[in-house]
Amino acid sequence: EKEYEQVYNALKECDFQQMREEYSLLQAIKIPERKLLPYETLDKPTEWINIEEAENRICALAVVPYPPGVPIITLGEIVDGDIINVLLYYLKASKTILGVNDKKILVLER
Predict the structure, then answer these.
(1) CB–CB of 73/59 below 8 Å?
(2) What are the strands of the beta sheet with 100-101, ordered from one edge?
(3) Distance of CA 49 to CAs 1, 52, 74, 110, Å?
(4) CA within 20 to 30 Å of 5's CA: 18, 32, 63, 81, which one?
(5) How far apart are CA 19 and CA 40, in angstroms?
(6) Cα separation of 16 and 25, whole Å?
(7) For position 10, what pLDDT does the model report?
(8) 7 sits in which H/E element
C-alpha cells in the first residue's frame, strides 16, 4: 500500500500538459530526407549557422538531444521545419543537445 501511495503522489506532481505537448511535437517528426550519405559529407566545407536559418540545408554533424539520446538529424540529411521546431523546443526546455553550439548547427556550405 505504501508503494502505491508513493507512485500516486509522484504522478500527482507530474506536468502531464507539458508531456502531452512534447509527445505531440515529437510525433510530428518524420525521418529526414537524405541528400548525401554520411561519408560524402566529411570532405565538404561546413559552417555553423543559426538553427532558425538552417531550413533546407544539409546537416554536417549529428544533432542528439539528451534525453532521449536519439539523433534527430545526422550527416547528409536535410534540415526541415519540424526539425527546427523540435530543436528550439529542446533549447527552450534547457535540454542538452549534442551538435548544437550557441543555438547554431553545423551544415554544409552552399
Answers:
(1) yes
(2) 46-50, 104-108, 100-101
(3) 54, 8, 16, 12
(4) 18
(5) 38
(6) 14
(7) 84
(8) helix 2-12
DSSP-H helix ranges across 13-67:
16-27, 38-41
Distance CA 42, CA 19 (A): 37
Which cell numbers hold the place of 86? 523540435
Q: Please state, in angstroms and as integers, the Cα–Cα distance from residue 5 to each residue in 10, 16, 18, 19, 65, following that order.
A: 9, 19, 23, 22, 33
For the chain, how big is the Rg over CA atoms in Å? 17
* Three-state secondary structure of 74-107: CCCEECCHHHHHHHHHHHHCCCEEECEECCEEEE
H or E, element range at 4: helix 2-12
Euclidean distance between CA atoms 69 and 13, whole angstroms: 25
What is the DSSP-derived secondary structure letter of residue 57? P
